[in-house]
Every structure is written in C-alpha cells, then in structure tokens.
Design goal:
The complex is a heterodimer of chains A (about 425) and B (about 300). Chain A is mostly helical and about 425 residues long. In chain A, about 65% of the residues lie in helices and about 5% in strands. Chain B is of the alpha/beta class. The chains are: A mainly alpha (about 425), B alpha/beta (about 300). At the A-B interface, α1 and α11 of A face α1, α3, β6, α4 and α6 of B.
C-alpha cells in the first residue's frame, strides 16, 4: 500500500461537492452543540443579584468565584455551614415575596452541595421523581453520611422485595454494583467543573449524530466505483485487487480518524476555553445530580478521555460497516442507512417502551456504548466466565473486534469482484 | 509475446455470449469486428480478468493469466466500452491516482502522467474536472490511463464509438502510434475503423470467431461479390427482399443498387471490387457496417 494511493482515495472523497457539504454539516453540528452547551438551553446560566440572567463565559466567571468558597473536601463543617445558609435563605424568602428569585439567586453556588443533601437525605434509590426539598428539612444532627447513604440506597434498590431490581440482577451482579459504589469511598470533593461536564455532554451529541454524517463520507468509497463505472478500469490495474483495496479501507479509516479527532478537539477546546478547564481532577460524583448512581469511579478528565475514545471506536466501527455495505451491496445509500438504523433504532424502540431491561439484545446496540457515562444510565452489566463487568467493557472488545472482522470481509468481498457479470 | 485463448466460453443465464473461442494474439493490432451483441465486450472482459470464463483458459506466454494475478494486470491496459470517470477529479488527479494503482513508482508518476497528457493532447485540459470533459476528451483521458503503464496487452473496447469524424481520425492515428511492440485488441462495429488501424481482423458473430485474417485475406476468401445494377424504381423493394443490397442511389427514373451476390444477380450487372464492407455485410447479412454510429450497447 502506498501513501499516494491512500491520499488520492481520500482526495476522491474530499473533491465531491456533496462530501464538502457533509463536512460543513459536521462543522455546523460541532458549532451548534457548542453554542447550545455554552449559551443555549443546555448552557450555563447564572442569575445575578440584580436579576440579570448571564450565560456562557460571563455566567462561568460568576459561578466560579461564587463557588470558590464551597470548593474542596465536602466535610461535616462544610455541610453544616451550607445547611445553615440554606435554611437562612428559606426563611428570608418569606420576607421578599416580591422577588421570586430571591432564594434561588442565593443558593446557586450551593447547588451541588444541596443536591448531595437531597440525594442522601432518603433511604431509597429513585430514578424518578426526585424530591427537591429534603435538604432544608435536615438538621445538623440528622445530616447524613453521604457515602454510607449511597451504599444503603443501592442495597435497598438491589435487595428490597418491592424493587424490580431485586429479581433483575443476579447475586454476582449485585455484589459487583455494591463494590463499585464502595470503591468511590473517600472524601467527596466538590467544586466548579462546568467546563468538563458541558464538554462531555456536547461530545455525546457530536458522537451520536456525527456518526451518521461520517458514514455518508465513507459510504461511496467502494460503491461509487460501480456507480461511476470506473470499476472496470480499477480492477484491471496491477494493485486494484489488493493494495488498492487496502488503500481504500485505509482512506476510510484515516478520514474517520482525522475528522473525529479534529471535531472532538474543536468542541472540547471551545467549550473548555469558554467555561473553564478547572475541575478536571474532581471525581464525577462532584456533579451529584448527574452521577449519583454512576458505577464508574472516574475524574472529569478521565471520563472525557474515555468517552472520547469510546466515541472514536464507535465511529471506526460505523466506518467499517459503511464500507462493507458499500463494497458488498455497491450502494452508497444503503451504506449510510445501515449504520444510521443501528444507532437510531434502539433510540426509537426505547421511546416505544421496549426497554433495555426487557431485551438483552438491545444492550448490545452501539448507542449504549456512547451513553454509558451519561448520567443516570441504568446499570447494564455483562457476566463473562463468572466475572461481572459493565456491558461497556464487553462492547469495547466486541466493536473493536467486529471492526477488524468487517474490514477483512470488506477486503475479501471487494477484491474478488467481477465486473459485467 | 503471445496471448492465447483456448475454448473460451462465457454463459449468462440465458445466452451464450462467447462460445468456445480459440485464438492466439501476437504483437500487432487486432480489430474485433461484430454487430452489437456479438460478444466482443464479454470476450474483452474475460481477457482483462474482469469476468471469470464459464470454460476455457487464457494464457500469456504459456502462463495462466488467473495464476499470474497482478503480474498479468501489470502488463494490461484497458479502455472499457463504457469508460467511467471520477466526476470531480481533474484529468491530472486521475492520472496521478491511476499511476500508483498501475504500479508506477512515485518518482516516475508525475513525469509519466505529463507524457500521457502530451501524447493525448490533454495538457491544456489537465486542470479540468472530468465531468466537464467532452466525449472525445474523456476518451483521450481513457487512452491515457490505459497506456500509462506501457502495457504489453492493450484492450480497447469500441474506442471510436460516439466520436465525431475529426476526433475519430485523431484517435486512429493515436492508436497506430501505440501499436508497436504490444498486442492491441480493439473492438468496433465500424468497418472503416479496422481497415485503417488493424493488421488482423476478426469477425465475431454470436460469440464465435467466424472469419480471421488480414483485410486482403478476408476479401479474397469472401464468397460474395459486389455488383452494380440499374433497376427500375418499382423493382427496388423486390430486389431488397431478394438480395443483400449494400447501397441504393435513387435517380430520376431508376435506382442504382449495389447488390452482394455470388453470381451475377441480373443481366447487365457490373462487377465491382470487393470491399471489407462487403465482407462484413456478407458475414452479418445486414447493413451494419456503415459509418453512422449505432451507439453503444
Ligand atoms: N451481464 C450480462 N448478463 C446477461 N447477458 C449478458 C451480459 N453481458 C452481456 N450479455 C449478453 O451477451 C451477449 C454479448 O454481449 P456483448 O459482449 O456486450 O456484445 P458486444 O460487445 O459485441 O456488443 C449479448 O446477447 C448480451 O445481451
Ligand atoms: Mg460491446
């Protein structure tokens, strides 16, 4: 395989006007998602004392400085101080009936700690609904031990006879989940990490919707040769049935790689530079609303890296499907459709009530891989040889393996193609 | 330098496109002449290893070409009948893409591509996107890729179809230039093409080689002769049913017919020199070998 062959295969894609449009769409998708996560509905908001709603970097500045004194290890003292203030604002609110935002404006910096109190102030693990007013009912005497409560809730969730989970999970799985939860023991830290959490959310949308656009880019690599009737010449060239096919596959994977990393780097850097790089070393538990139930013991930085790598694997897997369909069915349209359905169908079925719990098969779908770290994702586990692990780990090997196998099949299918039969 | 096909056969579901063909090609230009559907394209696709034969073998200097694999394709140049282009590649991109595929080393690729552009008169069009090329220019780009690797076997399927007369003449000259020291096999359904280009002519009909030889040999062996006859106008239709008529020239009160026949068709008929066109007509039994283009199958 020669470098020039790969380069011209890539160029063959990039010179097409439709592919340029798709590249532009990918860029727009990245830009839109960044905008949404910084300034839009999913963005960062801060209410100033004067009642002005700040968004984006301005909000980040305010929040960061307001949270500064509520950063660090969430020990008993900090919890008591926070509780005192929360109760104080609850009282004061009554004296300011004209200002509907009086209390909210003041507790903004305390939100994460308040969430901790809300979440740990009960014994049951609830997916929904969330009781938003537990915190203020607590007293310094009834302040819960956060870690203890997490474990207790999980225990109740797993073993209570009224809980559907008690029969759903096996004993080994229950033990595994409790171990994961206990692993995170140690002082809980709180602090500002909005940049990382918004960058992570943005990355998810880029991975999810971008994968379909990416499939379009590589879908023509093989199929267009027959559409354009260039296959007759291609297959009569010296390397057309071996190195040329490898060059095509390499071009598809190379383009996927470059586009993916460029886009993800752009989105992450844009959001982090606007909302701040701080908090990368905090545990994701510092954002309790999203990660209270997480079984992944990760920092924000680690989660971003792992999720980005998983996304990359997903894109590469999709590229291999698209190329295989492109080669086997000689149809670029089908080559886009198959991976798109693969990522959209589980989504569709989820909303139709066919849930992950009711179907083992569903758990294998690739969208689960990119959703694994998304907050409050139900526990999806696999048991292999007596070892329990998150399905995510299985999927990583599964999709990496499938990617290689599909690429090999693609190679084998395409290089024996007859023309004019 | 010898390309040999033995008992070469290709069946499609209902039709036998090529039927037990035996032939040996040596250095020189071979013109494969036959009406649409004769099996020319199918034969060429087998020779270029694009299609697996149903039966029979193809060898190059005694070696099976399927076994030779890329070593065979290295010496192959092919211009398909339905030559496809990469719409958004420029001509130069195209040749630089084909060069490494055809085993040309990177250091030589640029020079070789430029040489091809010069040879085909495409130098000033090299920056044009291929979708913007005229039919003739596309064909020239097709020739350029076919010979960029200096092939020992050059297969050209209907290279002149759809070209205007001046383009066609250019093309004939180009192919004649390329004819030295290689096997050139070109197919056509246009008699004058083979006459001007091919040393050896193969008449193909219903998947078989029915006559082979030089133009003179074919003419000599043709059982029919061309006769010029004066016929009253109202007898023209009768004559057309009765004889093979290669041309009709209508005058004021009568018509001059050129009739193909072994014996004198009617009293007063004048024997004319037999042409390759007569041979073609005699072989295929219909008016198919004129200059007008029947289009592409
Ligand atoms: N892929 C195919 N499937 C079925 N029949 C085919 C196919 N290709 C060619 N044929 C048939 O084989 C015969 C020879 O076709 P072809 O080789 O294209 O002739 P030519 O090139 O001389 O016009 C025709 O009857 C044609 O219909
Ligand atoms: Mg043909």
């Amino acid at each position: 395989m020669k470098v020039t062959m790969v380069w011209y295969e890539v160029k063959k894609i990039l010179v097409r006007p439709s592919c340029r449009v798709v590249l532009l769409l990918l860029l727009l998708l990245g830009g839109y998602v960044c905008y949404q996560e910084v300034f839009g509905d999913a963005g960062l908001e801060w209410l100033t004392e004067s009642g002005e709603r700040l968004r984006g970097p301005a909000a980040a500045r305010e929040m960061r400085s307001a949270q500064a004194e509520w950063s660090g290890i969430l020990d008993r003292t900090m919890m008591e101080n926070a509780l005192e203030l929360l109760k104080q604002y609850e009282e004061e609110e009554k004296d300011h009936p004209e200002d509907i935002n009086y209390r909210f404006q003041r507790i903004q910096a305390l939100m994460d700690i308040r969430d901790f109190l809300n979440l740990s102030g009960k014994d049951y693990y609830e997916w929904q609904p969330f009781d938003f007013y537990i915190a203020e009912t607590l007293t310094p005497e009834t302040l819960p031990d956060i870690q203890e409560q997490r474990i207790k809730q999980l225990q109740n969730f797993l073993y209570d006879e009224n809980s559907s989970a008690s029969s759903y999970f096996s004993e080994q799985e229950k033990t595994y989940l409790l171990n994961c939860c206990a692993d995170m023991e140690g002082p809980i830290q709180v602090g500002y990490a909005q940049g990382w959490s918004h960058a992570f959310d943005a990355g998810y949308y880029v991975i999810f919707y971008g994968s379909i656009l990416m499939a379009f880019l590589v879908s023509g690599i093989f199929a267009n040769e027959s559409r354009w009737k260039t296959d007759a010449v291609y297959f009569t060239t010296e390397h057309g049935r071996k190195k040329g096919v490898i060059a095509k596959l390499a071009a598809g994977f190379l383009l996927t790689t470059v586009v993916y990393w460029a886009l993800m780097l752009m989105v992450n850097l844009l959001i982090l530079s606007m909302l701040g790089f701080d908090g990368g070393a905090l545990s994701i538990l510092a954002e309790p609303m999203d990660n209270w139930k997480s079984i992944y013991n990760l920092t924000f930085l680690q989660r971003s890296i792992l999720a980005t790598l998983d996304g990359y694997l997903l894109w590469m897997f999709f590229a291999s499907i698209a190329m295989l369909v492109s080669a086997a069915a000689s149809s670029a349209g089908l080559a886009v459709t198959v991976p798109s359905l693969l990522i959209l169908i589980p989504n569709f079925l989820d909303t139709r009530g066919i849930t992950r719990e009711s179907s083992v098969l569903m758990n294998f779908f690739p969208d689960k891989m990119v959703r694994a770290y998304v907050g409050n994702f139900p526990y999806v586990l696999a048991e292999i040889g007596g070892n329990v692990m998150p399905m995510l780990y299985v999927q990583r090997y599964l999709y990496a393996g499938l990617m290689v196998v599909l690429a090999l099949i693609c190679w084998e299918v395409y290089r024996h193609r007859q023309v004019g039969g | 330098m010898e390309l040999t096909i033995t008992e070469l056969t290709k069946d499609f579901r209902k039709t036998r496109a090529v039927s037990q063909v035996n032939y040996t090609f040596q250095s020189g230009v071979y013109g494969l002449l036959g009406v649409n559907g004769a099996g020319k394209t199918t034969l060429m696709r087998m020779i270029t290893t694009l299609l697996k034969p149903t039966a029979g073998t193809i060898t190059w200097d005694g070696q099976d070409v399927v076994q030779m694999d890329k070593d065979y394709r290295r010496i192959l140049g092919y211009l398909p009948q339905d030559f496809g282009i990469y719409p958004d590649f420029t001509v130069q991109d195209y040749l630089l893409y084909m060069a490494p595929l055809k085993g040309i080393r990177p250091v030589l690729a640029k020079a070789r591509a430029e040489e091809m552009l010069r040879m085909t008169g495409m130098t000033q069009h090299r920056k044009l996107k291929m979708k913007a090329l005229s039919g003739g220019m596309k064909r020239r780009a097709g020739i350029a890729q076919a010979v960029i690797n200096d092939p020992k076997i050059l297969i050209l399927d209907e290279p002149t179809a759809g070209l205007d007369p001046s383009e066609r003449i250019r093309f004939r000259n180009l192919i004649s230039e390329l004819a030295t020291d290689r096997v050139v096999l070109l197919s056509t359904h246009i008699v004058s093409d083979v006459e001007s280009m091919a040393g050896q002519i193969i008449l193909m009909k219903n998947g078989k080689f029915v006559m082979t030889g030089s133009s003179e040999e074919l003419i000599r062996n043709c059982p029919d002769r061309g006769w010029l006859c004066d016929v009253p106008k109202k007898q023209v239709n009768d004559c057309c049913l009765k004889y093979r008529v290669s041309s009709i020239k209508t005058m004021a009160d009568h018509a001059k017919l050129r009739i193909l026949s072994r014996e004198m068709p009617m009293p007063g008929a004048v024997l004319e020199e037999t042409t390759l066109e007569d041979v073609f007509l005699s072989c295929f039994g219909e008016r198919s070998g004129d200059e007008s283009d029947h289009g592409v199958v």
